[in-house]
Every structure is written in C-alpha cells, then in structure tokens.
C-alpha cells in the first residue's frame, strides 16, 4: 500500500526501508494536500489548509518515529520504553506540582493527618501548632477571594457582564441576572483571620475529629446529598 501511494506522489527505490518509506509518504502527503487544496506548497493562506498541514505533520512524525522504533533491537526498544515511561512520570510529577501551586496559591496542599499533636504536649504548644498549621491556609484563601473580588469590581466599573459572573453567583448563592453587584460583593469577601482560626479549632476539635482526620474537613461542613458524605 505504501508503494502504491508513493508511486502516485513520489517515486522511491525498491531498497528503501520501511522507516524511509514512511517519512517519504508523509513528506509527499503534505505536499499533495497543499496542491490539492489549491495553494502553493509554502504559501497556504487558508486557516483550514494550515490546520490540515499541522495535523499532517503530527501524523507524519508519529508514523515515522514508530517505524524507526520498530527497527531497533529488542533491548534498545526495552530501554527506550523505560526512558519514555520515566519521562512521562516526570512530566506528570511536574504537572501535578504546577497544578498544586496554582490551586493553593503557592502554599501546597495541607492535610490534617499531617498535623501531629502529641497528648504529652502542653496545651499552649498544641494551640500554637494548630494555628501555625491553619494560618497559611487562611491567608492563601483570603488572597484568592480578594483576587476574585477585584475581578468582579473591575467588571462592574467597566460596565461589562462576563459569563463567569453567573458561575460565581451560583457558587456564592446569588442568583445572577446582571445587576446583583452589591449582593455578590457582600459575599465575595475575606474572613478575618482570628475568626477562621477559632472557628476551625472549634469545629475540628483542634484537628482531632473524625471529619478532620479522615475527610480533611476543618470546619465541620455537612452535605445532604446521598453518597457525598463520609
């Protein structure tokens, strides 16, 4: 089949390897697509043509790489497979770190189970450990809320009504129709740090409750939908 296609687009020698054939097919397939689409090989102005070219290049790269990979000795294929898996794992780890940084405002994920409060610790030491644990979380969340509040105020002052305001209203319990600026800004606001610390200590029993340890739930939130709880 490869040779039939190439005989139409570009002649090749009988001695060509499968990898060489694949790459020649790809190169000429792209040239043929450009010509059939009515444009010269290097002057494609249509967005459709450019998209088609990009997809063809990706397809060619994958086909050519796979053809060359199959020509490697078995041991080389195994080593290459291990290297590819290692790179994928590294990229996954880096991606997770980026996600964690963006999702938490740069402080990373905190888990109540990592807060060790020994029964032999003095009460004041336990309180300090708990507050030191909760303080960065409170600061990060207040910073996130302030950033969202600034976006809302910017939209209000500029007279815009972006679609994401409807989602914010849904999250904060405000039925957004385009005019509930004050109601939304009343809710999208920071909470004083002392109130956060005291409330979390009370609701989580100083991070010792089952909700805190098993569900990382430091504020005793309940849910009332079947299957959503602990």
Low-confidence stretches: 1-19, 29-44
Instruction: Summarize the main sheet.
Output: none
Number of helices: 9
Assembly form of the protein: single chain
**Which overall shape is indicated by the principal axes computed on the Cα atoms?**
flat
CA-atom Rg in angstroms: 30 Å
User: How much helix is in the residues?
Assistant: 55-70%
Percent of sequence in beta strands: under 5%
Q: Can you offer a commentary on this structure?
A:
This protein is an all-alpha fold and 230 residues long. It is built from 9 helices and no strands. It has helices at 2-9, 18-36, 47-70, 74-104, 123-158, 164-171, 181-187, 193-204, 210-215.
Q: Which descriptors would you attach to this protein?
A:
mainly alpha
Detail the topology: elements first, then pairings.
Layout lengths: L1 H8 L8 H19 L10 H24 L3 H31 L18 H36 L5 H8 L9 H7 L5 H12 L5 H6 L15
How is this structure best summarized?
This protein has helices spanning 2-9, 18-36, 47-70, 74-104, 123-158, 164-171, 181-187, 193-204, 210-215. It is mainly alpha-helical and 230 residues long.
């Amino acid at each position: 089949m490869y040779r039939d296609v190439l005989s139409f687009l570009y002649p090749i020698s009988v001695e060509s390897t499968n990898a060489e054939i694949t790459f020649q097919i790809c190169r000429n397939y792209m040239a043929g697509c450009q010509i059939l689409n009515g444009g010269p090989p290097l002057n494609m102005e249509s967005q459709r043509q450019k998209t088609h070219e990009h997809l063809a290049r990706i397809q060619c790269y994958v086909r050519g790489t796979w053809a060359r990979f199959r020509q490697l000795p078995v041991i080389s294929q195994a080593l290459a497979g291990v290297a590819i898996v290692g790179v994928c794992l590294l990229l996954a780890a880096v991606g997770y770190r980026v996600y964690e940084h963006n999702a938490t405002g740069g402080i990373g994920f905190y888990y109540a189970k990592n807060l060790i409060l020994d029964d032999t610790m003095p009460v004041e030491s336990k309180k300090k450990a708990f507050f030191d644990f909760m303080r960065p979380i409170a600061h990060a969340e207040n910073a996130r809320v302030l950033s969202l509040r600034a976006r809302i105020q910017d939209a209000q002052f500029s007279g815009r009504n972006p679609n994401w305001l409807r989602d914010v209203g849904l999250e904060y319990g405000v039925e957004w129709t385009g005019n509930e600026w004050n109601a939304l800004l009343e809710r999208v606001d920071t909470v004083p740090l002392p109130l956060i610390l005291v409330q979390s200590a009370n609701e989580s029993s100083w991070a010792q409750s089952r909700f805190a340890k098993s569900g990382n739930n430091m504020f005793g939130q309940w849910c009332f939908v079947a299957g959503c709880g602990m």
